Amino acid sequence: MINGGVGGYTVLENSIHYLTLLTDLKPDVVLLYEGINDVHPRLIGDITNDYSNYRIPWRSEGTVLPRPNPALAWLYPYRFYFLSRQILRVQQTGIGGVTSRPYPPSAEWAASLKRNSPNAYKTHLRNLSLLILAQGSRAVILPQHFVALNEADEIFIKGVTQHNVVNMEVAEELGIPFLKGLAASGAFGRDDTFDNCHFNERGSAKMADLVFEFLTANKLVPVAPSRR
Fold first, then answer.
1. Less CB within 10 Å around the terminal CB: N or C of the chain?
2. What distance in Å separates the CA atoms of residue 121 and residue 39, rounded to the nearest whole number?
3. pTM for this predicted structure
4. d(Cα 184, Cα 169) in Å, to the nearest integer?
5. CA dist., res. 130 & res. 135, Å (int)
6. Which domains does the chain have, with CATH numbers?
7. H, E, C per residue of the chain
């Protein structure tokens, strides 16, 4: 099994990642664990199909990083400031920290989720699923686990829940196995994650067992040939 996921990627970015790299692996089965990261584009402005309302588009004539002031570039204090505040920030937050647009206050999130439907997410998930199936691979869609730890999470989780519904709808439409019980209450406890969604060692082991049992039940685990 190969973990081809990238932290922070939306399903649209995962589609590009699959097209450019993962498709060459010719996988037998592709597990799609999507939905949480696609809530973020719905919180910022008016959603666009390419999520450019969320990510800062790359332009050939510019860059996502700020340019240093040439008049101050010879000053040591300015160079130290620019390095610590601009360049090192990329190492701390990852490229997503400088390619994502700023978030509105959490008080505006509920209105944003109501204004920006999950339709764009559904389109991208459906297209990626169809691509996988068209290439002769099997696909499995897994709902994402998320728990609310604060008031902002209480709003955010509404978007996650909507996307898990989309996951089920796309799976049913395309005849793709869907592990419905993964999102059921009681499947995971608070001590299975170290934040609102990322599994710790205990949660990872529980997740692996649930997925393996599901794959086995759906005859998606290769059976080793018996020796005589």
1. C
2. 9
3. 0.83
4. 16
5. 9
6. 11-48+106-217 (3.40.50.1110), 56-99 (no CATH)
7. CCCCCCCCCCHHHHHHHHHHCHHHHCCCEEEEECCCHHHHHHHCCCCCCCCCCCECCCCCCCCCCCCCCCCCCCCHHHHHHHHHHHHHHHHHHCCHHHHECCCCCHHHHHHHHHHCCCHHHHHHHHHHHHHHHHCCCEEEEECCCCCCCCHHHHHHHHHHHHHHHHHHHHHHHHCCCECHHHHCCCCCCHHHECCCCCECHHHHHHHHHHHHHHHHHCCCCCCCCCCC
Phi, psi of 131, rounded to the nearest 5 degrees: -60, -45
Structure-block tokens of residue 77: 């204090």
Residues 24-33 pLDDT 10s: 889 999 999 9
How many other CB atoms are there within 10 angstroms of residue 157's CB atom? 18
Residue 55: left (phi > 0), alpha (psi -120 to 50), or beta? beta
